[in-house]
Amino acid sequence: MTELFAVIRREFVYIRYYFDLQLRQIFWYWVLGMAIGSLVSVFAKDRIHALFAGMQGKKLGLFGIIPACLLGIASPLCMYGTVPIAASFRKQGMREDWLAAFMMASVLLNPQLIIYSAALGTKALLARIISCFLCGCAAGLLVHAFCRKKEFFSFDSFEEWKNRDTHPNLFIRYLLNFARNVRATGLYFLIGILLSALFQRYVPQDVMVNLFGGDQAWGILMAATIGVPLYACGGGTIPLLQSWLADGMSLGSAAAFMVTGPATKITNLGALKIVMGWKRFALYLVFVMIFSFVCGLAVNLI
Fold it and tell me: Of 23, 132, 163, 192, which shows the fewest CB atoms inside 10 Å?
């Protein structure tokens, strides 16, 4: 029994060491991400959505997909916040391909997640931003090609989104938004660090290299696949990705994971199923898996 307690204590020390090391490395990225995300949400969110709404009167044609993607990335809302906003744009006559690009980009990335991802290094950050932007463009192009003359989304089940950033004092409004960010991401962030510590302690490095390393298509496919069940929160997966990249995960595999993860997050899927219906929802899942796989291959080739 004494030996058992000694082993448990030793393992606890190791895991605490890895946990503390990981926490020190990315804690301030998490705090900065929430700080900037709250700034955008409180002070720039309405402006971003006004810019998107203002595109309606401009004859941008298919090229409108590009600013729609950029504004989707800049929007701080989650998918359940984005869908009602998109519904209001639809009522104003917004094009379906622009809406698809805006919503796809919004699902994949936001200012807060960009700051989180900086902890992964410049190459991984650029891979995430570029792949998410291109995924949004691809979604818009596909909707334009196949649903040009009919509605792709059905927003009937969504009510108008209620803005919670309404306190008259701007500073208190910001603090309340920041507190909501802490509550929404804090637990997942700590779980992600704990899982990373467990991986570092108990999963040999050569296993990660064999599974996700090199330029092998199999590793990219595996990374894209595990992004489906494992992704719960952007802040929670950053510690895992940082650990995996350090252990030999290829950048292409990481890029594939960073596409399928947020695109198949359970809350996002719930909202998208409602506005798409089963047939188009299934096509969406196929599109995400194919794009992430091709994206991962391209990143590794580059």
Answer: 163
